[in-house]
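User: Can you predict the 3D structure for this chain?
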Amino acid sequence: MALARMRRRDTHIDYWPGFVDALATLLLVIIFLLSVFMLSQYFLSKEISGKDSALSKLNAEIAELTQLLSLERSAKGDSEDQLVALKSSLAASEAEKGRLSGIVAASQQGATGTGDSQVQALNTQLDDEKRVTQRALAQVELLNQQIAALRRQIAALESALGVSDNREKESQTKIADLGRRLNLALAQRVQELQRYRSDFFGRLREILGNRSDISVVGDRFVFQSEVLFPVGQETINDSGRRDLDKLAIAIKELEGEIPADVNWTLRVDGHTDARPTSPGGRFKSNWDLSAARAISVVRYLIDKGVSPKHLVAAGFGEFQPLEDGNTEEAYAKNRRIEIKLTDR
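Assistant: Here is the predicted structure, written as structure tokens:
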């Protein structure tokens, strides 16, 4: 019998070393996954920082090009005014040239039509007319020179205006290209904020669980008023404080993840049902009640360590209902606090 008991003890298998090996392997896998996650977060932050630098550079280039375009347009306007003045001067010179040419022709015709009887008197007149003619010819020559100079100036101005037009077209094209690049960068920033919003709402769902009185409506996280407040009051109840404590933890984690140069806010909106407040009560209207409740939530989150610069409180009264109707169910859905992550 003793021999049989010894054999049974010898056949017992010790599983403990294998279990320890399995736990060690699982721990190594978890450490590896955490390392991969931290590396991916690091590279994502570097990429976002690079995009922000490119966005700032694009804004600076657009401002510089806009200033240059304004100066170019001003210079173009001055050149166009000068061109108009020169053309007016050219027309006046042409008219004066025609008048003087007529005088010269008339003088020459009068000189050839005189008779012998009048030779003495006409010689004197002819000398006078010759002097007048010479002066007129000198003036015509001077006008010709001035007209040629004006034409050269007009040609130079027209050439300068053509260059200015080309520069303006190039500037407009470059500004349009920079605008498209800026819009693309802004769209990428909006997508980043949407990703953070998705992650934030996902965390809230995990923290608060699947509850009928807390839901997601579009891009907003909705608490029914009864979760946070007693009827007709703005003081947060005990169960509401517990839920807001969880919310504050998620917001503080979000503050650490979103880059500092991304302008974002968490807007807390208060809403009521369509029934008026009690006469003689503390709140004169649903505006007052909804705003007071939103402010209470914001103050509580600030007390829990959330940065005030990322919080906004707003009251909407009964004017943005989720459901129309006068039933108790509709009233309950419309009494709510909405939390929305948005840009500033």
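The first strand starts at residue 214 and ends at 217. The domain at 211-343 is CATH 3.30.1330.60 (60s Ribosomal Protein L30; Chain: A;).
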